[in-house]
Amino acid sequence: MRSRKGSGHILVLNCGSSSLKYKIIAMPEEREIVSGEAERVGIKTQGTASVTHTVLGARRVIKADLPDHTAALKQALSMIREDAKEHKDVYFDAFAHRYVHPGRLFSKTTLVTGPVIKKLKETLELAPIHNPISFGLVEFCDEEYKRYPQYVIFDTAFHKTIPDVYASYALPLKLAKKYGLRKVGFHGISHKYVMHEAARSLGRDYKTQKIISCHLGTGGSSVCAIRDGRSINNSMGFTPLEGLMMNTRSGDLDLGVVLYIMFKENISPENAEEILNKKSGVLGVFNRSSDLRDAIGAMKTDAKADMAFNMYVKRVRSYIGFYSLILKKADILIFTDSLGAGVPVVRERICHNLESLGIAIDKDKNNSYAKGTADISLPDSGTRILVVPTDEEIMIAREAHKEMT
Amino acid sequence: MTLVIDPGSKEIKVWQVQRTKCGLVSTLTKEPADTALDKAACQKLVRRAAGKKKIDQAAFRILFGGDLFGGPAQVDDKFFGKFSRLTEFFPFYVPQVLETLKLFRAALKGVPLTAFFETSFFLGLPDEEKYYALPYEYHAGTRIKKWGFHGILHQAHANMFGPKEKVVSVVFDKQTTVSAIAGRRPLSISLGYTPLEGIMSRTSSGDLDPGIVFYLMKHEDLSIYALDDLLKNKSGFFGMTGYDLDIAELAKMYGKDPKVNAAFGVYETHILKYIGEALAELGGADAFVLSGSYLGPLMPIVYNLIKKISFLGIDTELAPWQSNETIFRITREGSAVRVYLDRMDTGAAITHLMQH
Questions:
Q1: Is the pLDDT of residue A222 over 80?
Q2: In this structure, are B194 and B317 located in the same domain?
Q3: A209 with A355, same domain?
């Protein structure tokens, strides 16, 4: 460790189902030293896996074989080691992991110890795509970087404020209580970050705003309803499988269909779970790739690509309609993450014909959006539509730094 | 006079429907389905229901028409062969309906007979609504898709409006369903491939995180059958409250019992979810039509719902909302969005469709 007391260089690790974002952030000044993202990790897509790595402003892209997230982290650490030889600021004192679903075992940022690893292991099935990935990285760091403290930051904490009326399932009460079966919600770190950033950019107090936040990623996607700074609903549920259609997840589905398929095909719950988590969604419908951007590229000539895109858009619109009702129209509609901030046609089609809910997009502003936080709504739109690149890593670093000091 | 027959698995319902100046008025006669049915028994039931009035036409209400029946069908010799092809979907219901229809056909000799299906209207759903985001092989060569339900009432509501009007139709029945209708065609429906999808009912869960299905199977060591039973028969209002009561009875406890309040809170949330979906599909609504056999008993909940969405431009008359008309408007003149209550039952709705 090289940092003086009260400060620290934190290596933040943020796993998506097919990506690994990493950053070394100098705290408390929140200065980004290294940032990078491994994309198309361990999953069937049309492109090659790559790592985009930026050190003190200098960017390089490396194509690499990344069969899993540990391979992606090893690649990133190797690049960091190379950079450290040339730049004295390139080092880290601690790891901070985004961890998707701690169940009822953890409710706040936690320092990793032996017993913590044991407890985390019990949570794997709660988010079968994300938890095993993050857990694998926690184990790897624990074995390979023993002298570095590690922190886990949970993605569910922001949604603790979802009221019972939106969080409860119509299940037998005893069973719901026994297992804590209620909507947990995810992407909380991102929704919280973009809430702050959107309100800041409009010069408004986030504690007075009604916000619909769309975190639309090439991995997971969720929509969040926020009132006065508190999450009141999230499209994901007890697990991240509920809600929107995603890259390989089905999202909302008739449970009768699930039971029918298990019965008809004589498959185990584990296999059915894998089908819904890893073989459905965009991949299931489009069949050639799990990346919606590939489907968008092919949709003029490929009916399945067109179908996948229409289904994806429809489900986001449905949740915007729902949350517009419970918020009685939103003050701000936010688009973030790789599809939300990165693909104009996604935003345009989602906002199409929603003027009755106060949402009116400026197509020119939308198409010309390049970077940063930007307002893409028409002047008379009751709801300000904002593109806000998320920065979960800053939020994670803030949380870890609080624990370190 | 029109006779409408619902050959249900628990009871046979027969409506005698007549047009009056207040709209279509129907009278219901019921017979337990386990009664040994033959031609004479059918003739007796028809006479009980119709009295001495001349039967001009008769219709059957059928729950499921699959891909084979995209609209009403004349009940003739060809019909039976075609309908029997749906047996694989409902191995108990379809043969029983076939048998009952044959008997009534004999009992109603000379009367034109038409079959109406609760799913026909929804064959016209857009593909992105109709299909689930499952692996391709589950769509190709299978029929896993949304069939929907309450198509007869939703279609009757669609016919009430002009081709450019956008309508949200809600049916409060044993199942509650919400449909978005534009240009008299459906854009969405809350109920899916099976009745488990959508809004919770007396004993079924409605929408639920599919991840919970696998979680419960593992942790409670439940078979598919046990889970099916849990979600269909032990959840919903019954599961949440522990009260094995009809929804009409539960509605009387609304506001007095915390568990009942919590259950109706979740029920309202489910309905709002689908109204929100409908509004997004339609790009706003010109009108809402609320109907179904539980509309009356659920009026306190309906009132709450309307209050919650009144910011959309709904300006209602003061409650209670009463009228001699079967279908009547409860919004004031000038309300940007109109809301209608429809007390038409299935018998009247089918008669309405026969006349349009």
A1: yes
A2: yes
A3: yes
